[in-house]
Design a protein that fits this description.
Layout (H helix, E strand, L loop, with lengths): L2 H24 L6 E3 L5 E3 H17 L7 E3 L12 H16 L11 H9 L10 E9 L1 H6 L4 E8 L2 E13 L15 E8 L3 E6 L7 E3 L12 E3 L6 H10 L6 E2 L4 H7 L5 E4 L13 H8 L3 E5 L19 E5 L8 H23 L6 E3 L5 E3 H11 L8 H12 L7 E3 L12 H16 L11 H9 L10 E9 L1 H6 L4 E8 L2 E13 L15 E8 L4 E5 L7 E3 L12 E3 L6 H10 L6 E2 L4 H7 L5 E4 L13 H8 L3 E5 L19 E5 L3 H14 L5
Parallel strand pairs: 3-4, 10-11, 10-12, 17-18, 24-25, 24-26
Antiparallel strand pairs: 1-2, 4-5, 5-6, 6-7, 7-8, 8-9, 12-14, 13-14, 15-16, 18-19, 19-20, 20-21, 21-22, 22-23, 26-28, 27-28
Helix pairs in contact: 1-2, 1-3, 2-3, 2-4, 7-8, 9-10, 9-11, 9-12, 10-12, 15-18, 16-17
InterPro entries: DPNP, Inositol_monoP_metal-BS, Inositol_monoP_superfamily, Inositol_monophosphatase-like
GO molecular function, one term: metal ion binding
Cofactor: Mg(2+)
């Protein structure tokens, strides 16, 4: 049976279930409502809706086996004291089915109803087809006569492929900016979506053509609307809203109706974080997730990972749910930013320990003749080793995120691999790296006592073999950028970025030898006091810097406002002189000699106004690795700068491990960009260079 046929059956089942719920709501009796063993309310509509959907799917899908994962079971209804309630539910189901011509003459007993309800006992899982049903989502809202929903989704091999949702109290017309209070007329919506086909809405009560819907196009959080459930206030919701700059009070709605409203642009953000760690049932999110995603939205956990519906009745997560638009998602990467900052800070701590006692035996050349040190390999474990922690809230949050960042959960694009470390003769060096990593992790209270073997170290390094690409989420890591500077005791950086659908949305960079106060114009050498910076940025939120020692609050930084090229400072790497750099500088009228810095520290310095120009034109067709620029690019652009190739185009990180360009890199300010592009273009033509 095709998905179109299954979608048709699902729409019919949900529409009839909504019809039953409307009939119950018209004359809701005290005896129609009671509490289950977990103190959550349940009504005859919950049971009746589940029975109707189960029976309709069975009849419409004919020879197809029906595996149903649903909220209710018949345990309470099979008790002697429930006979009257069961009889009422049976009549409701009979009348509802009889209202559809194709079911008019179908006999139905109380046992048929009980068995139909109990068809919902499936456990789901990663294999086969499973229907996921929330018979009445938002029972409290239903009882109060407010918003509720009936959600049905189809899971195929662990992935949601279609979803249907009835919202009987939701107005047909978009209520963006309003409170979603039901109007007396034109109320009742049926939303549906399937993979690759978009999301549609039509009337529940009249035969109307479906209308395609899309999420809001708002990209300014200050103008966004915020949904949350009718529960005890969750403090983190307000904290996140404040950080985003959302000014409006949250719109409170029960049930998956929030997903439906967001899918058509009634609001932009829905957060679901609970006060206590508790499992989330898949039926509370399955239909809503595909309805939002097919409308162009995003549904993730707090770490930015898609929800995993393949583990049975409960989502494989314990950290909160984020539902928003593609444009606003990067602003909500709070959990990922916390994890990245902690990971990079620990990595920097490790590198500093190595640099204190760096011996020549700790430096050797890889097969490509580039230097590598113990720190290059050791830094991977600061980010990926599994940890245990219960001592503090920060440690708890970190532990939760680390569990998401284990190798089988992450895609990591990184510089190093273990080929040289696995060779005979490297045993002592590998033991030294393992000890170094153990000591670094032990310096963090939350990681004390974590066992670590040399095999753990090797496997952790090799988790960086991802190829990246244009789809999905990929972390991009340079464990020590500027190894030559590191060896000399000068500037180097640890850079970590997050790539989502080919775009860099988050970056964190540690510059352990960069002074907190701007000193670039004087010398590259670090002073002995107030040294060590941690830069970080997420899309749309600006760039910040704070002390690596953790003893200062983050300060927002901006690129230089200087428009006078005579006074501009020019950054370049410690390499053989690149003739075109001098040609460009001369054309621009720059008088000062270039300031030479190793690593992405140049991006960091430029982002806070230490200099105005960084050019990187390479010799001999060198291919630029994405880890050399990913973190730095977003740190610069979020500080108001520009990062582009020689033609003025943004860098393309979506093609794998290498940038999709060979035309050099320009990093500067918006004000100077036109002049620099002109000078670059003229210099390329004069020197007959081709990229």
């Amino acid at each position: 049976m095709s998905y179109d046929e299954m979608l048709s059956a699902a729409k019919k089942a949900v529409s009839l279930a909504a019809r039953l719920s409307n009939e119950v709501r018209k004359s809701l009796l005290v005896s129609d409502v009671w509490n289950k063993s977990d103190d959550s309310p349940v009504t005859v509509a919950d049971y009746g809706s589940q029975a109707v959907v189960s029976l309709v799917l069975e009849r419409e899908l004919l020879n197809e086996p029906v595996s149903l994962v649903a909220e209710e079971d018949s345990g309470e209804l099979r008790k002697i004291a429930a006979e009257t309630v069961l009889a009422r539910i049976t009549e409701l189901v009979k009348d509802t089915l009889a209202s559809d011509e194709s079911y008019a003459a179908s006999p139905l007993s109380s046992d048929d109803v009980l068995n139909a309800i109990d068809r919902g006992k499936s456990e789901g899982g990663p294999m086969g087809r499973h229907w996921i049903l929330d018979p009445i989502g938002g029972t409290r809202g239903f009882i109060r006569g407010e918003q509720y929903a009936i959600g049905l989704a189809l899971l195929v091999d662990g992935k949601v492929v279609l979803g249907v949702m009835a919202c009987p109290k939701l107005p047909l017309a978009s209520t963006a900016g309003n409170t979603l209070k039901s109007l007396p007329e034109k109320v009742g919506c049926l939303f549906y979506g399937s993979v690759g086909n978009g999301t549609y809405v039509q009337s529940l009560s009249v035969d109307s053509p479906p209308v395609k819907v899309e999420v809001s196009s708002i990209d300014d959080p200050a103008k966004a609307s915020f949904f949350e459930s009718y529960h005890t206030p969750v403090p983190i919701h307000n904290t996140i809203a404040t950080k985003l700059g959302i000014k409006e009070s949250p719109i409170k709605i029960n049930s998956q109706t929030k997903y439906a409203a967001l899918s058509r642009g009634d609001g932009e953000v829905y957060l679901r974080f609970t006060r206590k760690a508790r499992p989330e049932s898949i039926w509370n999110h399955a239909a809503g997730s595909i309805i939002v995603s097919e409308a162009g939205g995003k549904v993730t956990d707090a770490a930015g990972n898609p929800l995993d519906f393949s583990k049975g009745k409960y989502l494989d997560y314990k950290r909160g749910i984020v539902v928003t638009t593609q444009k606003l998602l990067p602003r909500l990467l709070i959990a990922e930013l916390v994890a990245a900052k902690k990971a990079v800070s620990l990595a920097a701590r490790l590198s500093q320990e190595v640099q204190k006692t760096l011996l020549q035996s700790q430096v050797w050349k890889k097969s490509d003749r580039s230097p590598v040190t113990a720190a290059d390999y050791g830094l991977y474990l600061a980010i990926y080793i599994p940890v245990n922690s219960t001592s503090s809230s920060q440690a708890v949050v970190s532990l939760v995120l680390e569990r998401e960042l284990q190798p089988d959960k992450l895609s990591l694009v990184a510089e190093e691999e273990t080929g040289d470390l696995r060779k005979k003769g490297s045993e002592l060096f590998l033991e030294g790296i393992t000890t170094l990593v153990k000591d670094t992790l032990a310096s963090e209270e939350s990681y004390t006592g974590s066992p670590l073997s040399t095999d753990d170290v090797l496997n952790a390094i090799d988790c960086g073999k991802s190829e990246g690409g244009s789809s999905g989420s990929h972390w991009v890591l340079d464990p020590i950028d500027g190894t030559r500077g590191f060896v000399r005791g000068e500037q180097y950086a640890v850079g970590l970025a997050l790539l989502v659908e080919g775009k860099v949305v988050l970056g964190v960079m540690a510059c352990p030898n960069l002074p907190l106060a701007s000193a670039i114009c004087v010398t590259d050498k670090s002073s002995q006091e107030d040294v060590g910076c941690l830069f970080f940025a997420t899309t749309g939120s600006g760039t910040y810097v704070q002390s690596l020692k953790g003893n200062s609050l983050p300060q927002k930084v901006r690129v230089s406002s200087n428009e006078n090229l005579d006074e501009a400072k020019f950054l370049e790497s410690y390499h053989k002189p690149i003739p075109i750099h001098g040609t460009i500088a001369k054309k621009l009228g720059i008088k000062a000699l270039p300031v030479r810095l190793d690593s992405q520290a140049k991006y960091a310095a430029l982002s806070r106004g230490d200099a105005e120009i960084y050019l990187r034109f390479t010799l001999n067709g060198y291919r630029e690795c994405i880890w050399d620029h990913a973190a730095g690019s977003i740190i610069t652009t979020e500080a108001g700068g520009v990062v582009c190739d020689a033609t003025g185009k943004s860098l393309d990180f979506s093609k794998g491990k290498y940038l999709a360009h060979k035309t050099g890199i320009i990093v500067t300010t918006m004000k100077l960009k036109p002049w620099i592009l002109k000078a670059v273009r003229e210099s390329i033509e004069e020197e007959n260079l081709y990229f």
